[in-house]
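ok so dumb question maybe but i'm new to this and my supervisor (M.) told me to 'just get the structure for Fe2OG dioxygenase domain-containing protein' and walked off. so i did the thing. is this what she meant?? sequence i used:
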Amino acid sequence: MHSTLSDVFISHPIHIPLSNLPDFTSLRHLPDSYTWTPKDDLLFSASSSDESLPFIDLSDPHVATRVGHACTTWGAFQITNHGVPSRLLDDIEFLTGSLFQLPVNRKLKAARREDGISGYGVARIASFFNKQMWSEGFTVIGSPLDDFHKLWPRQHLKYCKIIQEYEEHMQKLAAKLMWLALGALGVEEKDIEWAGPISDFQGAQAAIQLNHYPICPEPDRAMGLAAHTDSTLLTILYQNNTAGLQVFRDDVGWITVPPVPGSLVVNVGDLLHILTNGIFPSVLHRARVNHLRSRFSMAYLWGPPSDLMISPLPKLVDPLHSPLYPSLTWKQYLATKATHFNHFYLGSLQTLPDSFTWKLTAADSILPPSSAAVKESIPVINLSDPEVTTLLGNACKTWGAFQIANHGIPQSLLDDVESLSKTFFDMPSERKLEAASSNKGVSGYGEPRISLFFEKKMWSEGLTIADGSYRNQFLTIWPRDYTKYCGIIEEYKGEMENLASRLLSCILGSLGVTVDDIEWAQKTEKSGSKMGQSVIRLNHYPVCPEPERAMGLAAHTDSCLLTILHQSNMGGLQVFKEESGWVTVEPIPGVLVVNIGDLFHILSNGKFPSVVHRARVNRTKSRISIAYLWGGPAGEVEISPISKIVGPVGPCLYRPVTWSEYLRIKFEVFDKALDAIRVVNATN
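this is what came out, is it supposed to look like this??
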């Protein structure tokens, strides 16, 4: 059974309550909820240009070349002599005007349901922005008979007929444009099986979006439709005689697309970008508003069958052009875009959005951070020093963190894993999202896991490698270099595991105990299991326009035994020391940073503090860090303070806990997790 286009959208509903939707015509001033600043739109104040989109006559004998060139260089163009009757364009514009002139309470009779997509409502992307958009819309998927009957009890059949005729013409035009665009790349009918026996894409699915941008009292501070790309193959837009549509081009900024009578605007969507292996850009666009005239637009959003797997066409892939995207359905792509919308454009922000603006108070962090870090530094310990055990013990007791030199990890390997990280984070956002972590999983691309505990977003992105599943992700991302990059990770994991074991033995030695004194270590050794499970986290902190108000990674402690961190040559890591405040850990070439985690704090019965740390960002340079988090044993093996450390008189500060139980507790109470397992009558 094939899913419908409605199923695609309903699977990822974005419901915006309409109870507060204003009567736009009655407002004389712009409400604060509709007042936009550069914080609220990704490129609100970006420069504009007098350039214009390509204008293509579809009767031109060189039309395929012109369409292909426009798709490649712009991702958008205007067309004339397209075959859609001007009478039909007038009819659809009249229908749209009649709909939005109805009283609000009448329009709300056909409001979009919470679990639906068709009907009256606001833009679906509205939930991704702090401010509301100065517009209203009506979405048609399938038959609008029921909704139109609610709006026009006597004329609904007339308007349904207009929609049906409009959809038929647009379907034919979209198929024609698709072949013109792909034909310019040498793609033939035989290369796309789902085009159908007569290559008319009859299996394609579409939606019609009717938009109204009312007269606005302060258009310079309002936004009709915020910057976004369409999740379609193609979008065909008819706009009335009021300008408002703008498209973005990297080298020039925003370009207004003035309406030309009888012409249509065509946008390349995300799915055609994927199909062409990135040759055609998916154009970023938005709609501005006007203080003199309202504006109507009618968008035909055209996509493939909703359950069809879409991937780069084999004809556009060769040894020099590996596939940039994996196979996925439209439904899967929409789910990914809905989850990661904000990260699509992080690197292009010129000002700090409110959602990323931290007040740097106790409410935003575990500890009230000072505005400037102390000019102190954590210990740097040479592992070849004869007194290394004593030095490590002192550092763990006084700081909970230290740096190590002569650790035995080859510099070439550190360079390789840093290069791997840069290669990944330099990819387009859409490509990185192919490796997105699932809601239930740990591995994959996404925001820091601690983001759930903070109101504001963090200025960072990361790739977590927690188990063997990363191999499939690497195969998708780097099909030609898969073996090379997997080899780097495997070698890095092996070297780090050996180093972590070595550090554990030395640090325990400073307390007069050995690994053999750890009960659960003996159990795992007997069972043949690894002593500690591990995770590698690749982190990227992009250049930030306002670093003093942003946070790369909020203050936290690690839940593991030890964390070993390699950072690029840009400072950002800070650790907290009670008597000193925040201390910046400046990177030293070839030196690694080691943090004591919560489990080691438990193991040492509180003698070693689990260090609170965070990451700040920079205005001029991005920063890469690679964290190796060495955790506890798998299964039901319990961790508790080492009995030799507690001694016969105690007190034992923490009850036994499995690592999985502790992670579950920390997920629930975050920075109160250690308190949650503390023995009630224990005193330190």
